[in-house]
């Protein structure tokens, strides 16, 4: 049943503006799947901002017969479901920790004072396929990977419990009515500010007109989100048997990752969203893992100290273990005649190739799931890196989107093939 408040074709009108919205027929959860019988394609991107210790992360051999590295031992049963990449980076992305901003955008020189970000991969995908779900995308974790078309950071939800509530808990009838009124008020505000901006445009120069064009784009995107949210406010949230992850201490970042992974799986399974980003922790808290007594960030600056490396390895091995469990849970979840992992691309990586030296080259990258022929280590030149944005082009095409470029990526990833 379509939401009764919206006609088949909806227009936004105000102050001389008439904005045609896309068809909203597929707004019911799993609507497209129900109509076509084909499971939808999805994407999850995860950034671990302090990187991984390279000698323990990367296999020594390239190709399909590589010997599993120490870190990837826990993921060995999933070996044929992922591809490891070495010798890749974003061209002209530097700035140490500032490179977090460019992990999914590949925008150059994020540490410069004049830096302006561009749209992130997830938001480009959400713009294409996000109309069909309650949430066009989810931005989770301790830092945001998501950037709008105007280069504005999209806030992230840090706690798994709050993300669970947002996805699956409904308020009372009175609370829902208040929410609907707020949405309607928001639309009225959008009409007002758009009218004011248009009046101003007649009295300004070309440079300011360009800024206003960007502003109009942001306003129109907000209008679309408001109208969509109003329709979904009348649609019951999906009911899941799994309980909320509960409150997890911030210092227990691997447990928090696991909590986020559990929520992400539920969000994908219920088709509440098809696009998710997750930013890991890069703070100085001391992990409660056995044998760890120094702060995580400090350990990443190990300076080749064996004792510090041993503690860092405990944290990073546990990070890989919960990621491998996440992949296994997706593969064990049916999705039509397939499973969630086969329909979901899961990107795991970091903006740093070396946390100790703040290097932004030779990034640790793994792509799992989706329509690709996995089970290999694609090794490129560690000194003259292959452009990582080419992988983003492959991911876009793997989602069925007709893109042949993204940021500095001008072709698909060499050596990564689709399944026959």
CATH superfamily of the largest domain: Alkaline Phosphatase, subunit A
The structural domain count equals 2
Specify the helix fraction band: 25-40%
Structural classification: alpha/beta
Strand content: 5-15%
Q: Regarding quaternary structure, how should these chains be classified?
A: single chain
Helix/strand order, N-terminal first = EEHEHEEHEHHHHEHHEEEEEEH
| Main CATH class of the largest domain | Alpha Beta
**If helices are DSSP runs of H or I spanning 4 or more residues, what is the number of helices?**
10
What is the CA-atom radius of gyration, in angstroms?
Answer: 22 Å
- The CATH architecture of the largest domain: 3-Layer(aba) Sandwich
Rounded to the nearest angstrom, the distance between the terminal CA atoms is: 37 Å
Mean pLDDT metric: 85
- Walk across the major sheet and give the strand order: 6-7-3-10-11-4-12
Tell me the total number of β-strands.
13
Stretches where pLDDT is under 50 for at least 5 consecutive residues are 1-32
Structure description:
It is a single chain. With 420 residues, this protein is an alpha/beta fold. Helix content is 34%, strand content 12%. The chain has a seven-stranded mixed beta sheet, sandwiched between helices. A two-stranded antiparallel sheet has the order 1-2. Helix 5 (173-201) runs antiparallel to helix 6 (206-233) and helix 7 (253-269) packs parallel to helix 9 (306-331). It starts with 10 loop residues before the first strand and ends in a 22-residue tail after the last helix. This is DUF1552 domain-containing protein. InterPro entries: DUF1552, TAT_signal. It holds the Pfam family HXXSHH.
């Amino acid at each position: 049943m379509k939401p009764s408040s919206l006609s088949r074709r909806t227009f936004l009108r105000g102050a001389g503006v008439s904005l045609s919205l896309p068809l909203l027929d597929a707004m019911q959860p799993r609507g497209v799947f129900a109509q076509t019988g084909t499971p939808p394609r999805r994407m999850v991107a995860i950034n671990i901002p302090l990187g991984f210790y390279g000698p323990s992360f990367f296999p020594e051999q390239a190709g399909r017969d590589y010997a599993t590295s120490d870190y990837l031992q826990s993921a060995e049963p999933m070996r044929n479901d992922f591809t490891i990449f070495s010798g890749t980076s974003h061209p002209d992305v530097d700035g140490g920790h500032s490179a977090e901003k460019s992990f999914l955008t590949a925008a150059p020189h994020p540490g410069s004072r004049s830096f302006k970000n561009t749209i992130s991969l997830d938001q480009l995908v959400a713009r294409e396929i996000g109309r069909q779900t309650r949430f066009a995308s989810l931005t989770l974790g301790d830092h945001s990977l998501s950037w709008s078309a105007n280069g504005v950071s999209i806030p992230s939800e840090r706690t798994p419990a709050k993300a669970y509530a947002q996805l699956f808990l409904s308020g009372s009838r009175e609370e829902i009515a208040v929410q609907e009124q707020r949405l309607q008020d928001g639309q009225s505000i959008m009409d007002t500010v758009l009218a004011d901006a248009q009046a101003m445009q007649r009295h300004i120069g070309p440079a300011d007109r360009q800024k206003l064009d960007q502003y109009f784009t942001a306003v129109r995107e907000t209008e679309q989100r408001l109208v969509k949210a109003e329709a979904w406010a009348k649609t019951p949230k999906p009911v899941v048997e799994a309980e909320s992850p509960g409150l997890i201490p911030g210092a227990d970042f691997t447990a928090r990752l696991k909590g986020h992974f559990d929520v992400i799986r539920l969000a994908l399974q219920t088709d509440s969203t098809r696009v998710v980003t997750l930013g890991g922790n890069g703070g100085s808290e001391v992990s409660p893992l056995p044998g760890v007594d120094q702060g995580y960030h400090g350990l990443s600056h190990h300076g080749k100290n064996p004792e510090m490396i041993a503690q860092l390895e405990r944290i990073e091995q546990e990070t890989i273990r919960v990621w491998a469990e996440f992949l296994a849970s997706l593969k064990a979840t049916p999705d039509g005649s397939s499973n969630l992992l086969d329909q979901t691309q899961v990107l795991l990586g970091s903006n740093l190739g070396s946390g100790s030296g703040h290097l932004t080259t030779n990034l640790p990258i793994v792509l799992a799931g989706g329509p690709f022929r996995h089970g290999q280590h694609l090794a490129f030149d560690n000194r003259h890196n292959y452009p990582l944005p080419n992988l983003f082009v492959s991911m876009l095409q793997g989602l069925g989107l007709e893109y042949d470029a993204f940021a500095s990526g001008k072709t698909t990833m060499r050596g990564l093939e689709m399944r026959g």
